[in-house]
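Weekly modeling sync, notes
Attendees: S.R. (lead), two postdocs, one rotation student

Agenda item 3: backlog of single-chain predictions. S.R. asked that every request posted to the team notebook include the full sequence so nobody has to chase files. The rotation student volunteered to paste the first one in as an example of the format we agreed on. Action items at the bottom.

Example entry:
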Amino acid sequence: MPATPELHLSEHADAYLRALLARDGRAARGAVESALGSGASIPDVYLGVLQPALHAVGDCWAREDITVADEHFASAVTESIIGALGPRVRGEPSDGRLAVLTCTPEERHCIGLRMLSDLLQSEGWEVLDLGASLPAGDLAALV
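Predicted structure, as returned to the notebook:
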């Protein structure tokens, strides 16, 4: 019986997480390439591999099982992967849909925001990605 997509992706997410926790960027990239090679789409990889692994990294950090340096390594590797995959999924804007994306003024984590930006662009949205820690007044002025 073939594996369900969720099981299939959870195996890749587990491999990705193990690689991140071992501080093995090459193995982490290999887990992503393996997921893509087995037929997963880039949005599937974002939501079924990267996202659950990063949630697990955050849980490890919250329990103090890993250091801030370990969390930063996991984030940096993931950001580099998103940087490589994003251009492969983004499409040209169509239908006049515009999304303005930013994090709250005190939020410094923007990996999820970058994934959302790529996913919206893959569906034809024009996206203004303003990144992390944007002051509310600046957002209001732009909008």
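Discussion: group reviewed the output briefly. The longest helix spans residues 68-89.
Action items: rotation student to repeat for the remaining queue; S.R. to check formatting next week.
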